[in-house]
């Protein structure tokens, strides 16, 4: 039996409030797997000390090229990863470079303390990095601001990010390092964006 035709209304539709912009497909894909296994971006707590002290997930260990093939001879000078439950303008979590004594395996997480911000433009797009120290490393945990680091350490970090994509003919611009207060603001803004853009969108 055929279904009866659906009646249409001639009334003027009620205007709806503007919707959030569509979620990035990669974000949605990562969220769709949460029912199967915990996802480090969404399921790991950022920690009660944020935006100053926070959990982070290591993607690339110190001295390694793991996670991507670098076209130059450089290796990551420190452990590199991201801060969970943050979101940036490029639809990725906020990147963080963690200064500590030992390399850490990819997939591990640790507590980090923000000490500065490295503003960076990668191929025309904003791609800032939080500079942090491991909050539980006795050699580095006493650092509170990036100006306390030895100048050669800052030069090493800057040089790496200026050079690591040169052989791919990709342009990267690193601006002057900013103090810890700017890092706190950046972490807080990315936490707010995550809450607004992800959590509220899932509730709709």
TrEMBL record:
SUPFAM superfamilies: Inorganic pyrophosphatase
Residues covered by region (Disordered): 1-25
PANTHER family documented for this protein: INORGANIC PYROPHOSPHATASE
CDD domains per the UniProt record, alphabetical: pyrophosphatase
Keywords: Hydrolase, Magnesium, Metal-binding
Domain of life: Eukaryota
Protein name: inorganic diphosphatase
Catalytic reaction list: diphosphate + H2O = 2 phosphate + H(+)
Cellular component GO terms held in the UniProt record: cytosol; nucleoplasm
Keyword Metal-binding: yes
GO BP term (any one): phosphate-containing compound metabolic process
Necessary cofactors: Mg(2+)
Lineage: Eukaryota, Viridiplantae, Streptophyta, Embryophyta, Tracheophyta
Family: Belongs to the PPase family.
A Pfam family recorded for this sequence: Pyrophosphatase
EC number(s) recorded for this UniProt protein: 3.6.1.1
Molecular functions (GO terms): inorganic diphosphate phosphatase activity; magnesium ion binding
InterPro entries named among the record's database cross-references: Pyrophosphatase, Pyrophosphatase_sf
